[in-house]
Amino acid sequence: MALITWKEDLSVNIAEMDKEHKQLVVMINELHEAMSSGKGKDVLGGVLARLIDYTKFHFAAEEKLMESNKYPGYLSQKGEHDNLTKKVMDLKARLDAGNMVVTVEVMAFLKDWLTKHIMGQDKKYSSFLNAKGIK
Predict the structure, then answer these.
(1) How far apart (Å, rounded) are the C-alpha atoms in residues 128 and 73?
(2) What is the pTM of this model?
(3) Cα gap 25→3, rounded to integer Å
(4) Position 134 confidence tier, pLDDT thresholds 50, 70, 90
(5) 38 phi/psi in degrees, rounded to 5
């Protein structure tokens, strides 16, 4: 069973950002499925590495869109992105050092962060960019 189910209330009404958010949901669900089936330890490193890479890609695209359109909340959004990237990279470093296994707490953190970030921060840029014709 999926940890996160994509619902239209997660949409930011910008096709490319929704597509990227959906991919993040898929990756978190993949990690959750591996953990649920007892394979979390076997696949965690690879999935976490892909999640880090994709998150960096997504954040760069989102930040470029905000910055190029002079979104007033850009610096706040970038700060949140930087904090999450650091936290996920710290998780990966702990895993690589043998000090961590995937846990319910890690999965809850990823789920909560993604859904709260989209519903809170990303929804703020949505109407601003939509008003500029970006969909």
Answers:
(1) 10
(2) 0.88
(3) 9
(4) very high
(5) 80, 10
